Amino acid sequence: MIRKLAAEALGTALLIISVLGSGIMAADLGAGNVAVMLLANAIATGCMLYCIITVLGPVSGAHFNPAVTLAFLLRRKLPPRQATLYVAAQIAGGLAGVWITHGMFDLDLLQTASTMHRTGGAQWFSEVCATFGLLFVIFGGLKARPEAVPALVALYITGAYWFTASTSFANPAVTIARGFSDTFAGIYPGHIPGFIIAQVVGVGLAHLILPKLVGRH
């Protein structure tokens, strides 16, 4: 269990580093154009997801996301105690990833809360859709071609940065962590609850629909 929790914490930390670090680097390079900065975010995140899922999947299952853990819990593929510990490790890893990223770019480790506003019905609906789509890719991939799941998730998130209004957080641990970084990829803390509620709704819809569509893994 210690190895599993360490893998979940490390994987989530690396995921956050890829999200925040790519945004900060794009800004530092003077990319001013938001589209270029978003492209940097998408590519870096997709690359990191492929790596961490491939390497750490055999250790912990490579959730790195409380929404994914909740989905496995609802399918009774994970006991409640392990699911709770996974979520705690993911949140801790996400926060560690924020501080590591700030350290790499010579920023204050503990920043004031993010001022990046992300709220409203379109954003919340996007998070419902993004989370549902992520779980569709994971469980559909596990049923059809398990060895392709790292690539499927990486490709899905890279694309979802662009086809969702919210840029596809689809991850409560990442959402919480990004509230502690006042950078391009941050989120104002007051808007975090709305995102997390939407993500949980996405999990609920996936739990109801996906078993009928792709079967149970």
TrEMBL record:
<keyword id="KW-0472">Membrane</keyword>
<protein>
    <submittedName>
        <fullName>Aquaporin family protein</fullName>
    </submittedName>
</protein>
<keyword id="KW-0813">Transport</keyword>
<feature type="transmembrane region" description="Helical">
    <location>
        <begin position="83"/>
        <end position="102"/>
    </location>
</feature>
<feature type="transmembrane region" description="Helical">
    <location>
        <begin position="36"/>
        <end position="62"/>
    </location>
</feature>
<dbReference type="GO" id="GO:0016020">
    <property type="term" value="C:membrane"/>
</dbReference>
<dbReference type="Pfam" id="PF00230">
    <property type="entry name" value="MIP"/>
</dbReference>
<feature type="transmembrane region" description="Helical">
    <location>
        <begin position="190"/>
        <end position="210"/>
    </location>
</feature>
<dbReference type="InterPro" id="IPR034294">
    <property type="entry name" value="Aquaporin_transptr"/>
</dbReference>
<dbReference type="GO" id="GO:0015267">
    <property type="term" value="F:channel activity"/>
</dbReference>
<keyword id="KW-1133">Transmembrane helix</keyword>
<feature type="transmembrane region" description="Helical">
    <location>
        <begin position="122"/>
        <end position="142"/>
    </location>
</feature>
<dbReference type="InterPro" id="IPR022357">
    <property type="entry name" value="MIP_CS"/>
</dbReference>
<keyword id="KW-0812">Transmembrane</keyword>
<dbReference type="InterPro" id="IPR000425">
    <property type="entry name" value="MIP"/>
</dbReference>
<feature type="transmembrane region" description="Helical">
    <location>
        <begin position="149"/>
        <end position="170"/>
    </location>
</feature>
